[in-house]
Structures are given as structure tokens and as C-alpha cells.
Specification:
Number of domains: 1
Strand order of the largest sheet: 1-2
Number of strands: 2
Radius of gyration: 29 Å
Helix content: 55-70%
């Protein structure tokens, strides 16, 4: 006899109404979808961080910016 625990109360799955079983299935599907979306979010955040790091690496250093503008470097 499989059971499920909700709010610290155990329920026999076989004794649940069809409506309760349907709601339980939808709850389980929703939980799975949330897990999938959290994984997708983690992947997107990792990609965003990688792109941000790649952008930082591709940006010119301040000295390169000065030289590109044709200014002379003044040493004091």
C-alpha cells in the first residue's frame, strides 16, 4: 500500500479520490518542470558569466585605448 505524506499526514494512495490523484499528478509534473527550469536557469547564468568574461578579455586595456586615439603617453 503506497502512501504519500502531506502536511505531516500520511495518505494511502489507493484510497484517494480520482480528483485527488489528478491533483497529485499535476503537482508532481509541476515539481519536475520547476526542476527542469532551474537547471535551464543555471545553464543560462553560466553562459552569461562566460560571455561577460570573454567580453572583458576582448576589451582593450586603458593603455591600448590611449594609443588607439593617437595620444602620446606622458610620464611624469
Amino acid at each position: 500500500m503506497p502512501t504519500i505524506k502531506i502536511d505531516n499526514l500520511e495518505y494511502d494512495l489507493d484510497s484517494l479520490t480520482e480528483q485527488a490523484k489528478s491533483q497529485l499528478q499535476m503537482l508532481q509534473a509541476t515539481e519536475q518542470e520547476l526542476q527542469r527550469l532551474q537547471l535551464q536557469l543555471a545553464i543560462a547564468q553560466t553562459a552569461r558569466n562566460a560571455y561577460a568574461n570573454a567580453l572583458k578579455a576582448a576589451l582593450p586595456t586603458p593603455l591600448e585605448q590611449v594609443m588607439a586615439q593617437g595620444e602620446t603617453l606622458k610620464v611624469s
